[in-house]
Design brief:
four-stranded mixed sheet, globular, 17 helices, alpha+beta, binds S-adenosylmethionine, three-stranded antiparallel sheet
Amino acid sequence: MKTSTVALIAVGAVVTVGIGYAIYFDQKRRNDPEFRKRLSTVAPKTPPATLAFPCISVPHPHPERERKRLLKVKKSEEEAFKNKAAESISQALDEIANETFPVTNQDKEKLFVEEVAKGEELAARGEEFYNEAAVSFFRALKVYPSPVELVMIYQKTVPEPVFNLVMAMMSLDVKRKQELYYKVYPPAEMNVRIDELPEGVTDDGKQIIRRGLVATRDFDEGEVIYTEIPVVSALEPALEGQDFCNFCLKQIPASESTVTCSIGCEKVVYCSTDCEKKAVAQYHQYLCTSSLSLSSKEHEFATYATKNNVKYPGMIARFLATMVYEETTKVPTGRDDEYNTWDHIERLRFLEVNPGPTEALEIKLLKELLGPKVPGIDEFVTEERYLTLKGKLQYNAYGVETVAEGEKTVPKSPEQHRNARSTSPAHPLTGAALYRATSYLAHSCEPNTAVSFPRRTQELALVATRPIKQGEELTTSYVQVDSDGEPVRGHVERKKELADAFRFKCACKRCEREEAAAASSDRD
Ligand SMILES: C[S@@+](CC[C@H](N)C(=O)[O-])C[C@H]1O[C@@H](n2cnc3c(N)ncnc32)[C@H](O)[C@@H]1O
């Protein structure tokens, strides 16, 4: 193999797949569990034991015993080889984690060419150098814009044992990054951590684990534990284009003038030029209906949402656009402890959304809207991924309240999400939003926190409703429990609602007390 084979093919491949958005969706594929599953079926394969531990063949008088002995030796050699390979892979990854990777495209390209050449040269020297060769190929993979394409090129050009080592490094790298997530997120200044907690027991006695928020210090009643900006949000369709900001969901006071869309559409307004700029950059450039005919895909998408009074298709479109924005504007540092929007969302649990004609239509509209503008989106938005995203939004999003009760009547949308002040369901919801940390906030019928929107924007503040000790789990109410300090309904009704909407059995102290009281009055 010529020294430049990989580099030559790789350059060709980048040209074919195109750079830009395609890069992003390619990276997503690499992190995709399905893709990883496919990888794990090819790697790590154990090279023949003779490679590292040549078998010593000694004639033996008992052929059957000898066969068994040889089998045993072979098995333990293979095991030792696997362990040794795993150890050196792990060490190599530790070293690579401490390296600083280049930021500019020029420097990345330089590193890529150097590492690939080094890898090829080492691989050509023979088995003894396979580990080092794999490390070089892996480094090249780290800076290459389209890793999946490069893996395919490696598969065709690199000796099989080296390829298997590169694959094993890739798998372990993804696994490590996943495990690191809850160690670095949420950041310390949020005063909470995400812990594994017991959720209950299955019918066959297995413990169910969920993740929840735990305080990392003490809090007084009324103290703000953290504030959080959502990953994605959306106004109620009925408020769009009126006096509500399309970006931060704030109501624009009558004394202030609204900021209109700089691209020129009349469907949305903003409370400030700052909100307008952010919205256009992050998502509105893909959704804007300006200067387009009424039959355009943008109009069709917007009309669908208004006519059916639904926010989630629009939120999914925004979410995908935001991912593209993030990927094309951020300065990569190559650090393993940095996570993007998808990394956050990927971890959230969700309720299954069944495919039906509504979802099929939404996927079609979304693809027609974004497809021509975002290369790679067509393959990325599979039916499964769309339903998963919708399920995650429906399960985890909060209703956002940016107006006081009685200030405005907003038609309720048919979509399900948790309401911030579930003790006051009459409170009008301005929209819905998905938050990274708050998504992990569990339910209790006597919670120790409340979700609020003190700036009357999408920014959420989690407030302690009683003194909280470090290490205590934080909870809020997903459903209406009290009204003006008086219970509005009993544990049976609350439990039913929680089971229907969130599929879990509430076992909070209040439910326990009420159940015990009901049981004792039944006995009397
Ligand atoms: C909004 S989701 C939160 C899940 C979280 N975002 C995650 O991805 O792990 C709500 C789910 O958390 C679990 N949960 C919340 N509060 C709970 C509680 N008090 N007891 C048991 N499970 C609870 C239930 O599975 C519920 O359906």
